[in-house]
Fold this protein.
Amino acid sequence: MAVDLQTSPIEIESVVPREEKEVVSKNKGKVKFSNGDEFNPTMATPPQPTFMAPVKPINLTVYTIDNAAYKMTFQTGRHTSAGDILKEMVKRLKIPEEMNNVFSIWLTSQQLQLQLKSYHVPVKLFKKWRDLLTQYTTASSDVCKTDQPILSFKRNAFLPIKEEKRLIAKKDSKVAITLLYHEAVFNVINGRYPLSGEEVLELAGLQCAVENREYDESQHTPDSMKDTLRRYFPAHMMPVSSGVKSKLLHSVRSGGGGGGLESDLCKEYEKAWNKVSSCAKERGDKCVDVETSAIAVSLGKEEEKKLWQDIDLQLKLLYLQRCWIKPYYGCVMFRGQVERKTSNLKQFLVYSDRSVVVAINPECIHIFKDSSPREIMLYLTYDLFSWDFQPATEEGENFFSSLWLEFDSTHGQQKVSKRLQIFSRQAPMMDAMISRCVDDLNKQDEELKRIRIDQEGPQELPMESIDTGNRSVSKAKNYLEDKLRCELYSPQGEPISHPLKSLVKRLTDKELSSPETTPTHQSSQEGEDTVL
């Protein structure tokens, strides 16, 4: 029963129910209200009630990667969480509820992109955006003042690729496939993935088929494609107006024999369209390649299998498959710096840094050379390295935190353990993401072990039986690892001396734990994805 606070103290007994009267007597006449206030009838005047201001609804706009805007109103006002926004977006886009974890809500701007947890409140983070830029980027104070984030609906960075494939092989998954396709296109044409020219060209042909539909030789000519090349290729592949560089870039496959990039695009466009359209006419419930066919067969129901005969869907799925085979698909990109490996005595006397991109997903970590095009310098799965985080010990624009990676390798003919130090304002986020991914993998291993025990199978599987996923990674050489300056240790853990060790300060295990050893480094421009 509600208590009328305007009732005089001596009349309080008349509005307190029998059950509450007993509480009053036990508590020496005090009444405790639902808002936590206590009222003592012996007081001359009752306490003033605490009133909460009514919550004003808030209007928010969420953008997808293809720049579509979705305006929504939330009655929870400025307290609306990222989880609330995610649920509304999934509902608005008619994505099956079981696919909720495929996507996440992000705060994105030119300088920083943050994936939010379900309990994060975007309005609060909006207000703290300048502080976040100062903490996690090297943007100038003037840039921090003008940089404004937006709410984005993007792929969940912690989603394993196997789980993505499993979830999109469901009924009503076309919207999810389309969103994932657009995000993959964004990563390719913005040069975020270290793809070869031939790989980019194949993807451009698929994208062209998606956007222009049926190939028409009379309409889709090289001349008609000249003005649209920027839609399909990253900047480093675009032909320049004149000079030797133009001849080198103007054609991917002709080797300077003429035709140009636009001619190559037309050929790939025709090839992609003919492959999918001819298969669509001939097949019943079969799809255009092995992986897609496996998905279609797993659907089981005829009405669901028909979904995969949609040519537009097939083209988008083919595009995704070409990206899925890359181990860096779905990576979160962090910017950092490593010490440059040089042989020049003068450069050994000072720090010489190289800008790198640290790409992390639930399966592995990459170090990309921050160039155009990007190049893979190092590739490691989680079972091949250990890591440590070292916070910056001083505040200032030239003092960064560090992420240490330790992995087995070779130095000449000698087996060694290498330790690589990556300097970055975003090192705490790298450490947090690696920890989360390793924890998830350990949980998966425990679950598989439990299932094997329940089925009375072996607790441990032989190495040759473990599926590595057939990812497209060359084992012939270790990319540009030799360009990275690492500390070297013998298999027994003893440091291997460098010829110029007397001229170069090297960190030992003891020094790593000492705050005085954090070096200063030049800042680099930031603007990649991170995970909050």
